[in-house]
Amino acid sequence: MEKALKQLKEMDKEIVLLAHTGALLGWDQETYMPVKALQERSEQIALLQGMIHSKMTDPRCGELLNNLGATAATAMGNAGLAELDRAFIRELFRRYNRAVKIPQSLVVEMAKTTSIAQGVWINARKDSDFKLFQPHLEKIITLLKQVADCLGYKDSVYDPLLDEYEPWMTTKEVEQVFSSLKEPLVRLVQQIVASKQKPDETVLAAVFPEHKQLEFNLLVLKAMNFEFERGRLDVSAHPFTTTLGADDIRLTTRYNERFFPTALFGTIHECGHGLYELGFGQELKGTLLGNAASLGIHESQSRLWENMVGRSLAFWKGFFPQLKQFFPDTLKNVEYEQFYRAINAVKPSLVRVEADEVTYNLHIILRFELEKKLISGELKVQDLPQAWDQESKNLLGIEPDNHAQGCLQDIHWSMGAFGYFPTYTLGNLYAAQFFETLCKEQPELEQELEQGNLKPVRTWLLENIHSHGAVYPAGELCRRVTGEKLNPRFFIEYLQKKFGTLYDF
Ligand code: ZN
Known about the structure:
This protein is mainly alpha-helical. The chain contains 20 helices and three strands. Helices cover 62% and strands 3% of the residues.
């Protein structure tokens, strides 16, 4: 048994090294790579992905797992093994199983189809022409159904797709959670829209020079305890975080001199992701357990920092005097409460990535409901634009005038990433539930934030969440940390309290 485990760990280590190498190529492509390097870079990345896939599907891996008695039913608990080894086998079995079930020919066809579809999507969005994109989306959905069939499912064809991003969670569970979220959210948005109390957003309508924003971002990252000996911050068109090694986490952000929140909250968000990756326990480093429990949990870490900490009144009481030193003229006559109100303005809008904390999740519910119907065949691709506009009206009270601002706005579907969207909202829900526990266990937290001290947040997350990596599935982690399973109540109460005060109802 010892020997089989050792061999599996050696094989896994090589996959981790290759994956980090691939991440370096991807990071460089998005940040510093000269444009003409794209052709060979794509080939380099494809070669590495092929190598990783063949290692993941190595028949020896299957034999060794078999020797260890790992099957779908027992992968969760090989009684004779230590806890970490059991978790390792569970995750390895899951990965191996998913990889071998999908034939190589389908993997290649999916990669080709989505690569073409992404190019078409860019043009379709530019010209707001859904018809151009339609046949590509139809092909993607056909292939995804084949993928789902290969992976197998009991209740919903959407289950195995969701499982890619949110392991062990079912469509039914997401439906239950989202359905108890929807009504209160819609009501809350209506209350906010009807409120006479409106934030003064003119305080943000000024020019904030990029180099000054960068300096302030670095100050906040240091306060969050981002370790610059183990990571960096750069600029890219779309902000992201990537792991090039257990001690090498790269964050990116983007600057808008005319809209200050973009860079700062983007940076805090990515740093939340980065701190998670930096916080995996020493014994998990370089193994597949040195990973997030799920995308939802990953997003909970970025959202907790961005919204619950970064957009809180206490945070700005602590940091606004420092911000004023960076922009003394612009913010001369602004008080921190005024600034806090402006950065928390709520307005139903058409574009997800620009949405505020409250309406954001309605954008996600809309996508989840539509993509589920597309995959089950209940909704035809040709009817998508109409269905989108209708749902937008139902949920947000507004309708897009064109496809670019409607069903063509996100890249996800062109990449074949069905099942990804719900993880954004799951992240918000987990964040609120974790934050509630954090506040209970650290009653002094608000005063600490008001002093500009973010250490208690970092320490608590590290101990309770980060250090565990993928040792516990998301649901179990949530129960261990908060004492109960994922419950949307925490998020709804958080929003009602915060925005009820801001909008006076
Ligand atoms: Zn994120």
